[in-house]
């Protein structure tokens, strides 16, 4: 049974090696596809999160 919708999110909030061992031995979430859309998954792969000052751009007119 999966606790979260994201394997990478689970690993960021649990002990990674213990989670990986349980996932492999118990075949947890074996058919899940990681979409990398949530903040913890993005951080794991080095993507800037889309929250806070990173969620928008400031544009201004130059005239």
TrEMBL record:
The keyword Transcription applies. Keywords: DNA-directed RNA polymerase, Transcription. It comes from the Eukaryota. GO terms for cellular component: DNA-directed RNA polymerase complex. This is DNA-directed RNA polymerase. It comes from Trichuris trichiura.
């Amino acid at each position: 049974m999966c606790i979260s919708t994201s394997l990478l999110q689970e690993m960021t909030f649990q002990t990674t090696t213990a989670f990986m061992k349980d996932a492999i031995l118990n075949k947890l979430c074996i058919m899940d596809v990681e979409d990398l859309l949530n903040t913890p998954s993005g951080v794991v792969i080095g993507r800037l999160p889309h929250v806070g000052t990173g969620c928008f751009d400031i544009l201004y007119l130059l005239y």
